[in-house]
Design a protein that fits this description.
The chain has one domain (8-109): Cytochrome Bc1 Complex, Chain D, domain 2 (Orthogonal Bundle). Helices cover 28% and strands 4% of the residues. It is built from three helices and two strands; from the N terminus they run αββαα. It has a two-stranded antiparallel ribbon. The longest helix has 11 residues, at 24-34. The relative contact order is 0.24. Bound molecules: heme C (HEC). Residues 31, 34, 36, 38-40, 52-54, 56, 59, 65-67, 80, 87, 90-93, 95, 97, 105, 109 line the site of heme C (HEC). The site of heme C has 24 residues, from helix 1 and helix 3. Keywords: Heme, Iron, Metal-binding.
Length: 113
């Protein structure tokens, strides 16, 4: 797992959670665009109040993703775009995010403290 560098507004996150080249504001926009909020409550994203998946409040303080994976940038970047490749029977679907967008989305989630 490479140690990653801070990008602007995720500077409040602990060092191990800062996402290389992740742009949290762009991530917030991507979350709205692909409608993660259909399934999740996500603070700061208008209309994101779904209850299919867990609420993502304070996600930056969680130790685990989906209760089984370490909450680290490389894992989260992959999770947000292709969760079934990590946990085959998960209810979290593949999402149409490219690599850059996945990093941005992860950066935004780490601002949720
Ligand atoms: C069709 C519904 C659905 C959509 C759309 C969806 N998710 Fe999920 N998500 C889930 C479910 C269900 C889980 C719980 C998975 C598990 O525990 O295996 C989950 C879990 C997660 C987790 C782990 C939460 C935790 O508490 O461990 C994160 C982070 C997450 N989703 C982010 C996103 C993001 C970001 C998007 C948009 C790119 C998104 N999800 C889109 C259903 C969805």
């Amino acid at each position: 797992m490479p140690i990653v560098l801070a990008a602007c507004n995720d500077a409040d996150a602990p060092e191990e959670q800062r996402v290389l080249e992740g742009d949290a504001e762009a991530g917030r926009a991507a979350i709205a665009e692909v409608e993660c909020g259909v399934c999740h409550r996500i603070p700061g994203v208008a209309g994101a109040n779904g209850i299919v998946g867990p609420p993502l409040d304070s996600f930056g303080r969680r130790q685990l993703i989906a209760g089984v994976l370490p909450n680290r940038p490389g894992v989260l970047v992959r999770w947000v775009s292709d969760a079934p490749s990590l946990v085959p029977n998960t209810g979290m679907p593949q999402m149409p995010l490219d690599k850059k967008q996945a990093r941005d989305v992860a950066a935004y989630l780490y601002t949720l403290r």
